[in-house]
Amino acid sequence: MDEELRRRRAMAMLKEGRRVVDVCTALGRSREWIAKWRRRSEAEGPGALRGRSRAPQHQARQTSPAIERAVLAARDRLERRIRGREFAGIGADAVAWELELAHVAPLPARRTIERILQRRGRTARTRPPERTRPPAAYPAVAARAAGDLHETDLVGPRHLRTPGRPVRFFSFHTLDVAGGGVATDQFPDKGAESFCGHLAAAWARLGLPRTWQLDNERTVAGFSPRARPPFTQPLRLALLLGVEVRFIPDGEPGRNADVESFNDLWQERVLRRFDCPGLGRLRAVSGRFERWFMEARPHPKLRAAEHGTRFPAQLLASLDGALPRLPAGFTLDAYREEGGELRLPLARGRISWVRRVDEHGGVWIAGEHLRIKRAANEYVVGTLSTGRREVVVRHGERIVSRFAFRIDERVVRSLRRGG
User: Which CATH class is domain 149-217+253-329?
Assistant: First the structure.
């Protein structure tokens, strides 16, 4: 039975007085489908049951030759600058900003610019891989304003070519998801000392976030998802400064998509474009790139009408006094033992783990194996409150488990006001 015949049969059955549920069962269609075609039939008559063409009803407006020439000229200018080893790219976003600086009007949309570049063979853009939709809603942190959410990730280990032997390093990146600000630091290792050094420097530049999100990096999260998580020095630093910590699920780096995207950009514009014969030179180039990213590159998430600027550095300056800052005089050296080892106290605060329950309903959180069959193949969030010494596990808004968490040390107040 074709679709038009099925629609006519449905309307005939309704006129005979058949119940909607019986019509749905007989024809294998939903109540919404029945209601849709009943409305059309009553409003437009039986002819409406033939359906409507899905072809576009009007011709898309063509881009003017002048705009196309301006796009290609802007692309050429950007390509010449890249040869001079600048940080800017040559994609649609960079071309759009170049056109805006040149006061081109009307300013074409990003997709229009992409079509022009593709049509003229001036882009290496490839089709993005298909993404499978996750089976359940992911409990993401809402990042609506600067400081709501920071993401941190590492690039490394990488190696620099030097006149002697290669120099091994890690690049630490922290990004403000809503505010667009970024902080980068390079260290020869990814140990707790380096991690804390980066966090202290990054939060001095960007302000303290409400939530700090990262993957399950061992330096912070510990070594085994099945063991009671240790309170590592980076964890202690975050809690001491009143920052909530949140770990994304194992094997799902895309949950930190913003900082992952920045990692790619940093490697493309810094590591692959500039020769750095040592860690000092790399730090200098990365610092220049950070300033360009903050001060000279319009951020795609910022709108002048909403934020007053398109540049993260200007947004941060406008929020001075509104974002939480490091306590006056704060230094890691104040928490070192006589031998120089960093020993931070454990402060009141929250550490959360986002985990996906397996098909059998099992999940490991904070060293405990839980059975949550109703959440099989779905995400749960386990949150440890160090002040209450308790872990609460939520599936959506519902608490599905809670258990005591032993802490064998004094828990202090955080340094943030009200902490």
Answer: alpha beta
